[in-house]
Amino acid sequence: MFEKFLRASAAFDWFTPTYTLITCARKRPFVTYAIPVNYYGGPAGIRRLMRSWGADVWGADIYDDETIIHARKQQAQYIEIKLRECGIPFRGGLAVR
């Protein structure tokens, strides 16, 4: 239910994309991951999981039924190993660069 609320309210949200853009500019270089929204409780769950691994992540947004999350490029290889270990499908990351 919360995911439906987020999708509906995203059309009126201007703060989150602006904050994410500023954070991405400040924390360059970074990589972006797209993870299906139904894994680990959506954006908050994915962010919490990655932070439990010690990853510096930000901008967990929902776009087109995917959680879009950014991380520092220096931590990308470790994050991808952990995502594969957990069986979480993802797009992006180091493969795009």
Notes on the structure:
With 97 residues, this protein is of the alpha+beta class. The chain has one domain: Alpha-Beta Plaits. Helices cover 43% and strands 24% of the residues. The chain has 4 helices and 4 strands; from the N terminus they run ααβαββαβ. It has helices at residues 2-9, 15-26, 42-52, 76-86, and strands at 30-36, 57-63, 66-72, 91-92. A 4-stranded antiparallel β-sheet has the order 2-3-1-4, with helices on both faces. Strand 2 and strand 3 form a beta hairpin. The longest helix has 12 residues, at 15-26. 20% of the residues are buried. The model has no long low-confidence stretch (mean pLDDT 81).
Show the helix and strand layout.
Elements: H1 2-9, H2 15-26, E1 30-36, H3 42-52, E2 57-63, E3 66-72, H4 76-86, E4 91-92
Antiparallel strand pairs: 1-3, 1-4, 2-3
Quick one: biggest sheet? 4 strands, antiparallel
- CATH architecture, by name, is 2-Layer Sandwich
**Contiguous runs where pLDDT drops below 50 for at least 5 residues:** none
Q: What is the radius of gyration computed over CA atoms, rounded to a whole number of angstroms? A: 13 Å
Shape estimate = globular
Q: How large is the share of residues in beta strands?
A: 15-25%
Helix content: 40-55%
Structural class: alpha+beta
Number of helices: 4
Q: How far apart lie the N and C ends?
A: 35 Å
Question: What number of structural domains do the residues give?
Answer: 1
Mean pLDDT: 81
Strand arrangement within the widest β-sheet reads 2-3-1-4
Strands, total number: 4
Which CATH first-tier class would you pick? Alpha Beta
| Order of secondary-structure elements | HHEHEEHE
The CATH topology turns out to be: Alpha-Beta Plaits
